[in-house]
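Translate sequence into structure tokens.
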Amino acid sequence: MRKTVLLLVVAALAGSASAQLPGLRRRGPAPPVQPMLLGIDALRADFMARSGADTVYFGSDSSVLGAPARATLSAQAQWLLQHPEVLVRIEGHADPSDTRDHALAVGARRAVEVRDYLVLLGVPAVQLSATSWGKERPGAGRAVTVLVR
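Result follows.
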């Protein structure tokens, strides 16, 4: 035990002494590489420009993804795979004429369907969350991908 402590003290002194020798510079750890941080507005603009839309549409009272929705989600997935630092909230909406419970259920199915499809395309599930707005924020037949960060 005593030898171990003595060795640690000697090693610490040797390290500090070498940093003080003339002509020698002790290097500290390299600074972390910071990716260029873009504001959320710039990310949204790039997302929209490259994926074409932040919204996919469903048939009435349906959560089945049609061909146009799958094409939009494929473009979104490509962008999201290139931006793993971006977190996404997928919002499911429903008709304002539905009952509150039914609207929440339909919105949830739509949001989950979009999330699951993006995961199927390779987007990490931890990057995505799904929520339903039901009648609180009606938007007949759609699900919206919202960049959070």
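Note: Helices lie at 2-20, 40-51, 67-82, 100-120.
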